[in-house]
Amino acid sequence: MSYEDEIQAMREHNVEPAPFERLAQKEAVTPPLPRRRMSVAAGATVCAGLAFMVLFVRPAIGAGSLYSGNTLKLQIAALLPVFVLTWALRRLSQPRLGAQLLSRAVWWSSLVVGLLVSLNYGELPDKVLGAIIAVACAVALLSVGERGLEVQEPDSPFAPVRFRGHLLLALVMAAADALTLAFSGLLQLRFGMEGWTLGGTLEYAGPTIAAAVVMAVAVWGVYRLRTWALFLNLVANITIAYLALEGTLSLSPSVSITLATTAAIQCFIPVPILAAAAGDRNAGQPLLHSLRHRLMRFTVLGLAALSVLAIPLPGGDGWVNGPGRAFVRGTGQAARSQRPSARQRLDALDDDLRGRDFDHQALDGDFSGADFRGASLRGANLSVTNLDGADLRDVDFTRADFGAGLVLLPLSAKGVLVHGTDFSGAQIGDEDWKQLAERGLEGVRCPDGVLATSGDGCDGHLGRVERGLRRAFTFARTSTHGSVSCGREESLTLVFEQDGVLWHRRERYVQLADGDFVSPYSRIHVSDDGRWEVSSELCGDNILIPADAESAEEPSPAQ
Amino acid sequence: MTLAIANTHELATVQETSLQRARSGDSVAQAELYREHAATVTRRLAHACGDEDLARDIAQDAFITAFGGLDRFAERASFSTWLHGIAFNHLRDRRKRGARERAGKARLALVEGSVEPTPEQRVSSRQAMERLDAVLATLKPKLRDAFVLRVVEQLSLEESAEILGARVATVSYRARKAEALVRAAFDGGEG
Q1: Residue A401: count of CB within 10 angstroms of its CB
Q2: Which CATH number among 1.10.1740.10, 2.102.10.10, 3.40.50.360, 3.40.50.2300 corresponds to the domain B18-117?
């Protein structure tokens, strides 16, 4: 036959379609899920998603700023559960195995995250939200049970003839782990994005994110029943358990132990399957259905109950470890009488805060034993901080405020290590300085900018001014910064000295060795012709025009 | 189906299409749509994949998907074009899965065998167009799909492009290239 003849034959060739009744039979392979139970699960999913959403917006409404004593900084990480719960809600009613499996994984992961939030964060609202999430996900899991997982899809790559229960369990647990790891990784990334280099951020969050990706790949492969995926799942779980316990994942002990426990459980699931694949015909008895069902219910109920019981307990050890711990951990529930009324505490006992950027932040709380090496605390306020035993080597305290002159606000800094520490322009009182100098001042830059001498330390270099120094002046021009007015209108104002400290209104200055005066916010340079020039990051430069000093009365620094 | 709606002044008749009734889950209307389009879809799929059993199976999947998603059918194109688009999407999925499985990757021995027959089996089931089928089996799937829709089924470029989810120019190029290859194979065989 010629080309044209064969084309024509193909055009005329009729293919009998399958009868319509077979279409209905094929559809019946995937039975609809019980509507009432689906409604309960959908409601619980919405509830959990909303609770995560509140955790996300809470920092935005003032509860999550380091300045105001942050208690929980889930922020962008909290959007991941919101996203996957929304996805689960959309796919919940679909009688597709993939959708049903991933919905279970989303609920399991959110249940674990909710439990850990209620266990590990100090503030009551966060604990309650964590418990709501855990209970809602438990309700969703219990209401659907194993319905939908029995679906046998003719076109699904997941069509095992044996070990279906094992494989489903492995898939759900691995997917849940991948989500939990991704949540933790996002949390670490969120921290790293604030003032870290890309390399530092990836070094911190990279292992956790990599673990999440590996688990996701394993889930993808196991769903397609690949042998390599089962091996990958086994190896990944062993590795994750090791890394979590060893500390490479930089997660808090409770989160690490949780991940290690689930990883250890998962290590045993594929063993009989791999044995069967290797030729052992007797390997692995099917998991007893009723026993598995009861165990699942018991576990879900237990975890949900634990999340509720954890509400009145004091805060735990937070979510992450390492440099980000102070940033995202809970503060613990201090006794009400101990709480400062306006300034909340941020505790980070023994934390690793190396290289962290705390510039211009108020560190009120217990940082005893913390490792601050190389950290930047330029212009930071440490007036009610406990630094006992902290390692402050190579820390930049330029223009930091240690509460000099305000004796009612105690700084505790006994036994700190200060080598290479820069105190240029720092506001430090005599008593506080004694504490800081207790273990020697070798290599320290004194408040006036001069390197400490081996004999006298910083004696005579604390940036004090001569008694009686007083200067009245007017600003040459009004200065604003964006919409923020610096409040320095053209008016008579006064710089004065009291108890060895130079003041301008409520700003205190330290005199550097070159004669300039610095405060956390501005620097005053006295030029040769007697003009005072003040420069400020916030307000730009100003020329101070000397006025009649005798005409101004000396105000009180407390005004 | 014709519905009679009466009021005090007039008797109006409303022509409700099978499509509209199928949207509301009417199984009779779905059966009407199935009978109307199943033969064409199955035939075109059979030409595209070279296996009539597989074509029937994919056509069924396409109808299940289409009936489940009728709410999303915006009627920008005809129902037939939309349905064929779904069918060829399913065909592409099957090909991908088949290619993965044939790639020799270790697959668990616990899995039921692939439902997709070998190319040899497909060819033997269509003795009537034995030579053309054999030549088409050597074409890349994208070229084969374009050839089937444009040359064998003589659909317009626009409709073929809509079904295959590709640009008109792309489909035109694929169809011309495929036709040239098939003609060359025939000419070579005859020579």
Answers
A1: 25
A2: 1.10.1740.10
Closest CB to B131: pick one of A6, A22, A155. Answer: A6
Residue B22: partners with Cβ closer than 8 Å, 6 or more residues away: B29, B30, B32, B33, B67, B70
Distance of CA A479 to the CA centre of its chain: 37
Question: What pTM does this model have?
Answer: 0.51
Question: Out of A9, A17, A226, whose CB is closest to B39?
Answer: A17
> Shortest Cα distance from B77 to chain A (angstroms)?
24
**B96 interfacial to chain A (CB closer than 8 Å):** no
**Rounded-to-integer distance, Cα A357 and Cα A361, Å:** 9
Residue A556 DSSP class: P
Question: What CATH number is given for B126-191 in this structure?
Answer: 1.10.10.10
Determine contact, residues A524/A509, Cβ cutoff 8 Å.
yes
SS3 readout for A89-117: HHHCCCCCHHHHHHHHHHHHHHHHHHHHH
Q: What is the pLDDT of residues A189-237, one digit of tens each?
A: 776 665 556 776 777 788 899 999 999 999 999 888 888 888 899 999 9
Summarised one tens digit per residue, pLDDT across range A391-410 is: 888 888 888 888 754 555 56
| pLDDT, tens digit, 9 for 90 and up, residues B85-103 | 999 988 888 887 666 555 4
Q: Which two tokens stand for residue A234?
A: 């086994």
Which helix (H) or strand (E) is B66 found in, with range?
A: helix B52-68
How many Å apart are CA A501 and CA A506, to the nearest integer?
Answer: 11
Rg of the Cα atoms in chain A: 32
**pLDDT the model gives residue A506:** 65
**In B, which residues are within 8 Å of A224 by CB distance?**
100
pLDDT of residue A253: 78
